[in-house]
User: What shape does this take?
Amino acid sequence: MQKEQQSFMKRGDWAMKQARRLPEIDLEFGLLNAVSAASRKEERTMSRLHQALDPTKTGREAESLDRTLRKMIVGQDEAIEQIVDMYQMYLTGMTAPGRPIANFLFLGPTGSGKTRTVEALAESLIHNPRAVIKIDCAEFQHSHEIAKLIGSPPGYLGHRETHPLLSQEVLNQYHTDTVKVSFVLFDEIEKASDALWNLLLGILDKAILTLGDNRKVDFSHCMIFMTSNLGATEMAALSAPRLGFQSFHQNGANNGSVVIDEKLNQKLSKTGVEAARRKFTPEFINRIDKVVVFKPLGSPELRRVLDIELGLVQQRVLHSPSEKSFVFTVTATGKDFLLSEGTDVKYGARHLKRAIERLLVQPLSNLIATDQVLSGDWIQIDYDSDDRRLAFTKEAEGLEVTAMANMLESNLEAPPMAAAACVVAETTKGQLAKSSKK
Assistant: This one.
């Protein structure tokens, strides 16, 4: 009897405990039901979504990079697109783990902008065109010269005295708080010995380099670029009938626009890739992400290059130690003369800068040194057909800051190095204000 009473009391205590837990149980079941209902509702909502997505769109940072590069690089849209695509993958964390961000091989004739593209990328992201670790492969034509890159191994003469060019400190020296990307350029890779190509196999595939003292260098935050002139002779033969300027003195003006059609583009690309495959081993080519063939520049592209170079000369005037800030403009015939003197089918736009230095910058320096040009002047540069040289004329003097800034905005196509014409104008104002104080 006593056992039955104890058993009954235990069952009663258990029932009372369960009764007290009823609100908690109801709450738990209520939460579960709410979550389940929300999940079912979400499933119903997701099942009704058939929204088309556009994978060709890029993020704001990639779009900004694309716009900046297109202002600085002329006529090489494919190279810009490939660079922007790989940088977008890096920003979203979708690059292959344990590999560099991208491995590029740039092919094409001299003067087409291969090296300049890498410098423009560094300038766009880090605001420093020199933030490129450049390896001149012509200095590594012998296998023993690889020690310059990785240092001498223990036991060899110069161990601990040779500072490797590809150490981790060298790679990270240009990193900023916002951009932690290194740009490594192997210029004219075809001139290097096979030992350098074999050294690159591990870097391109595993993003790891072992130095002479067994230290490891991580290339996973690097964009690796290799340039080469392989196939340039064949490409020049294909494009020579379509490119170049006739004698300026015979025509007296610029020729009509020269356009490279899509069919010729495909031939040039195929020629460059085949030349690379004949030169490099299959395992080397197989580790390259993108092979980009740079096209020769036609007349419209060369004119844009000229405008960019003239904008850079104007910046030099504004930042010159002489404290004589003035503006200059070049007429259409003056530009045609510079183009005829500074471009060639074989050399592209390579010596266009040298022609500008010889025909425009050097005479300007004489005018500055002899006080023929002062702060606030406007210099007009035209072509003198009688003397076959550029003629310099002072059109105005004592220009206000606003007037000079407006002239820069309307006449100069300044590259992003000046962050558009408004920044050039601000620079002008600062320089003029500084000169006026003196």
In short: The two ends are 116 Å apart (CA to CA). The chain has two domains: 60-297, 300-437. DSSP finds 17 helices and ten strands in the chain.
